[in-house]
Fold:
Amino acid sequence: IFESNVGGDKIDRVTGREVNYHISPSDGPATATLTVTRINKGKQKDPFLNPGQWIYLRTYVPAGSRLLSAAGFEPPSQSAFKPPLAYYREDNDLAEIEKNVQYDMKTGTKISSEFGKTVYGNWLYIPIGESRTASLTYYLPNEISKNITDKGSYQLLVQHQSGAPETSFHFLMDNISELPSWYTPNDAQLTPQSGKPAAFEV
Structure:
């Protein structure tokens, strides 16, 4: 998950974030649901910490994932954007990174390919003193789904955005009876949730 604060303020310093990731295996493609909650803890009297926060949220998922739904996102009004000037040109470096761009018309989600992953991008607005939750539900690629169904094997790589504040991360997989094996950096703590062998909090 990568977040871009487009407001030019310092509100990231006082914004909380919680991430929930839920895998539901099935006879067909496994379904993944990612939920992101942001809490704006800004202060009305602080000029740098009092605005509502506009976030452009990009989620990098396994290549070949297929978006089913997106909820909780809120795009800015068109009046917030300035039309590009006539001499503007596409950046060749960015064009080389971001490929196969398309849009989900129902949700406004931008879908692209970057760094060997499928990327979902959309807007999130968090008013001061409030929280907002956005969610993405998608089918995992057939190879991953087959490994879960046939081998009981699933590997999850969680990458933290450089410079981002601490994040509460919760993982849950349905229909798993054995305790999974984990590898984490030394500063990451895994806390099993009681009665849920495949539910962990980081």
User: Anything to note?
Assistant: The two ends are 15 Å apart (CA to CA). Residues 197-202 have pLDDT under 50 and may be disordered.
